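Hey, can you fold this one?
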Amino acid sequence: LRGASAPGSALAFWITTKDTKITKEVIVHRELVAKELVDSALKVHSTLGPGLLESAYEACLAYELGARGISVSRQKLLPIRYGRVEIDVGYRIDLLVDDQIIVELKSVSALLPVHEAQLLSYLKLGNYHLGFLLNFNVGRMKEGIRRMLTGYWP
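Sure. Predicted structure:
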């Protein structure tokens, strides 16, 4: 954490990366939303259990987050930026939470490296920093949660 006081606040720190300033408040907000996301996923899993289709968990998780006052976009289009052109190749983010956290949902017997690569690719393509890979086909939900970060700070 690099920083100094921002105008009007001796406690406001920021991170500077590629001419982008992120205040401590922005980071704290993101972490609070991430906590609510994980808590919501635990609730959905404890209510529904494992073994359903990914779409069922997606709908219920979106509902749970919305009930907590957190904005959620489902199946958000993610184009590829190639030079100055955006090309739609069919990539879709399962959930975009609070316009800043990507959530990829799975209902598989085991998460594979390709699932992690998918999330990392989406984070980089969309210039997002934080993402979660959630596998609901597990006995205990905490075993199905992967948090992933990129070096990009929007």
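The CA atoms of residues 46 and 76 lie 26 Å apart. Let me know if you want another pass with a different chain boundary.
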